[in-house]
Amino acid sequence: MSDPAAGPGHNAPAVTVSELSASLKRVVEGEFSRVRVRGEVSGFKRAGSGHLYMALKDDSAVLDAVCWRGTAGRLAVDPEDGLEVIATGKLTTYAGRSKYQIVIEALEAAGEGALLKMLEERRRKLAAEGLFDESRKKPLPFLPSVIGVVTSPTGAVIRDILHRLEDRFPRHVLLWPVRVQGDAAAAEVAGAIEGFNAIRGDAQIPRPDLLIVARGGGSIEDLWPFNEENVVRVAAASEIPLVSAVGHETDTTLIDHAADRRAPTPTAAAEIAVPVRSELVAQILDDGRRLVSAMGRLREEYRLRLESAGRGLPDPQSLLAAKTQQLDDRAERLDLGLRGLVREKRSAADRLAAGIRPAALVQLINRRRDRAADLGARLQPLMGRHLAELNQRMEQRGKLLESFSYNRVLDRGFALVQDRRGQPVTDTAGAQRAGRVIMRFRDGRVSARVEAPDSDAAGMAKGSRSRPKLPPDKDQGTLL
Question: How far is it, in rounded angstroms, from Cα 209 to Cα 274?
């Protein structure tokens, strides 16, 4: 390079613009091969080629920046206007416009405040699309058969979940291993959720009934993959109910809003996923006991109601006897009435015959005979209907009496116990006083001897040698 102070007529050769630009490029790239620059993103745009163009600025300076397409997909933070970032890369020059710029190789948010600002803006955006609406959330299955877990296979999270499930209600668990921190974590988590949803029922691998996305605690930067837009959208679109268990109780990520249920810790997610088996068994046993008790009370209530209704009915035997006596009385009175009527008519006919001529008498007798025949023909159906009605009533009373008969009870497998006099025995004291009883079954009767039960368990332990041998009883029947 020539001395800038040399005047006209010096011998310094002239350089071209391109040569000067190349010299400047070598100096800048050699001197600033790797730098980290903090500034606010301004004028951000994404070209059709996939390259990113923006400017980084502070209060007094502006630095142009470019990020090539191959690097743009690996950025930890999506640049947007107003976001304060720290860009890592190298300085270079752009001869076409006589300016220098930074080629971004990595991009991160400049501090927690910037991340929180970006997180809040993203939350408002996704909430406006309805991804966090309660109406989209699906109910969790009461007892899932298969649980899919999306987390790191080497951390303590999966061990805590498996241990808690083993304590409460062991279930079949499918683990989809992913990285839960770093640039590739968001894509792997989203792919795992989509992969579980892609499993069909006829596949060799069972389709989960519930998904758990879990990670331990950490800083906002560590948990950032679960705030990425692609993860939130996949979680909201999951057909399988999803439980988010990212971080500790105080940590909140965007996937918590999109999930069907949020758990404060991974262990709590396992508790939400399944009930306690021992409590379910105890509840079922208690419900069974209550059901048996309720059925017993209902059966006793109906028995009392039946007995009360039976006491309100008249004695069928006495009712039938009264009606039978009434029927006999009516039949006897009818017979006597018919005989008296015949005698009365015969006397009247005799009186009339004494005062008339034979021809007239014959005519009168014929008329009277015809009238008597007519009366008999008219009376006969009436008597038949009356007798049929009385017979039907008697049959109904007989059926009612039969329905209350103890024989129906014997048909159901019960037995009637009587003493030797034929009186019913209804308690153990009466049976012991009788000594010998007659047991009447549906198909016959047998005789049985009544013995007192053993006084205590010690007597039973002595065996058959301590029991007195009773003499055979020829009147004793068999119960089998």
Answer: 11
